[in-house]
Amino acid sequence: MRTSLVLLSARLLDPVTGDVLPATALAVADGRIAALGDDREIRALADSSTTVIDLKGAVVTPGLTDGHLHPVSGAELTHGLDLSACTDLPSLREALAREVRTLEPGAWLFGWGLDPNAFGDHPVEAAALAPVLDGVPALLQLFDAHSTLASPRALELAGIDGPRTFDQSAEIVCDEQGRPTGLLLEDAACELVERAAPQPTHAERRDRLAAALRAMAATGLTGGHAMDANGDSLALYAELEAVGDLPLRLRVAPWCQPGTDEAGLRALIEQQGTGGQLWRVDGVKLFMDGTIDNGTAWLEHPDRHGESTHAFWPDPDAYTRTIAALHHAGVPTATHAIGDAAVRHVLDAVEKAQATTTGAKDGKDEQDGNGGVRHRIEHIESVPDDTLRRFAELGVVASMQPTHCCDFTRADHTDNWSRRLGEERASRAWRCRDLRKSGATVVLGSDWPIAPFPPLGVMAGARHRRPTRDLNQPPHRPDQALNALDALQGLTTGPAFAAGEEHRAGRLAVGYRADLTVLADNPLTTSATALADLPVLLTVLDGRITHRATVL
What we know:
Blueprint: E1 5-8, E2 11-12, E3 25-29, E4 32-37, H1 39-43, E5 51-54, E6 59-62, E7 64-69, H2 71-77, E8 81-82, H3 89-100, E9 109-114, E10 138-142, E11 147-150, H4 152-158, E12 171-174, E13 180-185, H5 187-194, H6 202-218, E14 221-226, H7 233-242, E15 249-252, H8 262-271, E16 279-281, E17 284-287, H9 316-328, E18 333-337, H10 340-355, H11 363-368, E19 376-379, H12 385-394, E20 397-400, H13 402-408, H14 416-421, H15 423-426, H16 432-437, E21 442-444, H17 455-464, H18 484-489, H19 493-498, E22 516-519, H20 528-531, E23 536-541, E24 544-548
Parallel strand pairs: 1-5, 2-6, 7-14, 8-9, 9-10, 14-15, 15-16, 17-18, 18-19, 19-20, 20-21
Antiparallel strand pairs: 1-3, 3-4, 6-22, 10-11, 11-13, 12-13, 22-23, 23-24
C-alpha cells in the first residue's frame, strides 16, 4: 500500500470532543487515512512519489460536507443576474434596466436570488417592474427557489393567459379578472414558462457544473448531499468523474413527487446505490410543503394573509403510504417540511412506518443497529415545543440552513417571513439549539443556490445568526445559536451519520476516508464573526488534493 500524501506539522482536530489530537501528522494511502503519529514517524512512510506538505501548524478537520445543496440546478441558475443585493424596488429596477441594456433584441433575461422584501408593501408581481421589462422575456427566480416572477412577454411566449390545475400545490397567481400577475408558485407552475425559454447545451451545463464544484472545493467542501437528480444531473456527475473533474463526494436523492405511481416508486427503489466511486444515489427527496414567504408552507393555522393552509401533497395520506413503502424497502428519505403542520405530518408518517416494521423496537434502535433506515426533515423553519423531542425519539435527522435565518429574516420581525407568521410563530425561528439539546442529530447546509455555499459561512451563521452582509445588525433569536463544536459537527459528524457512514467518514482516524479540510486556524476558537474569512489552505478528497493555497 503506497503512501500518496503526508501532512506534517499539523493540528488535527477531533470533531467529537473538540480536542486537538496528540498526533501532529497523518499519512494517506488508497484514499484512506493510513496512519497518525508524530512528524518523524509519518515522514518515514513517504517515498519519492509521495506528496509531502508541511502545514506549519495549520488545523486539519474532517472534510466539510454541505448537508443540503443543488449542484446542477445551482450551477445553471447562478449563471444569470444575481439580484440578491437588491433591497428595494428602485435598486431592483435599476439592476434589471442595466441588464436589459446588454441584451440582444428578443433575448431572455434570467435573474435569481430575488428577495420578496424588496417589494416592501407592494405585491410581488410583474407590474411592479414595468416599464423596465416591457417586451423583454424575463424569468426572475425568488430566493426560495419555489417561486418565479415572469414578465408579460415570457408568459405570452409560454402561452400562459390564465390559471391552471396541477397535481401538486402549485399555482399561476392571477388577479380578480383571471389574468396572470407573473408570480408562479412551486415547480410545476414555474416549469411551464421555463420550458419556453432557451436551454443551455449539455456541454455548457457540464462546464458550469465543473466550475461551481471547483469553487466549492476551494472553500473547503469535500462533499455534499445533493437534494435532486433532475434533468441530466446523474449523467453530468458520471462524466465529470470519468475525467477526474469531480472534486466533491456527492450523495444524491432523486425526487418523489405527488402522483408517483407504483412503477415510479419501484424505479426509485431500484435506483438506490447506483453511481460511481465519488457519487451515488442514496435516498429519496420529497416535499410536504412549499415556503412561508410565498404562502405555500403548511401551517397548523393560516398565516396572516390567510395562506399556507395546505400540504404540497393534495392527499397527505398518500405521502404517508409512500414513506412506509420506502422505509420498508430500506430507502432513507429527506422531506422538505418548513411549516409546523408539515413537520408534524412527516414525523407522524415516520413513526407509523417504523411501527409496522417487523422486529422494530423504536426509531433510535432502528437507526443504531441492524439495517435501520435514517430519515430526515429539511429546513424546519418554525416548530412548536412538542415536536422537538420527537426527532431524537424517532431518530429523524434535523437538516437545517442557518444562513436562511441570517439573511432572509430580521431580528425585529419586519421581514416578509416574520410578518406572515406573526410574533408567536416567528419567535420559533430555526430552533437549531433546541433541537440539538433535545438529542437530535443536526446537519447543516446552505441549500445552494438559495444561500452561498462556503461552509465556514454556514458554520458562522449557525453561531452568530446575524445578516451576512452586515454583522453589526442584531442577531435573530441568539438563544438558538449553536456553539462552535455543534456547528462543526453539523458539517462533519452530522452528515456522516445522516448518510449511515459514521464508521468511515466524519473523523480523523485510521481507516477513515481521507476527505480533509485544512484551515489557517482552529474554527472552534475563531470568533463567529471572523470565521467566514478564515483562510482555507488545502482541500483533499479521497486522498487527492482538490484545492491548495499558494502559501503551502
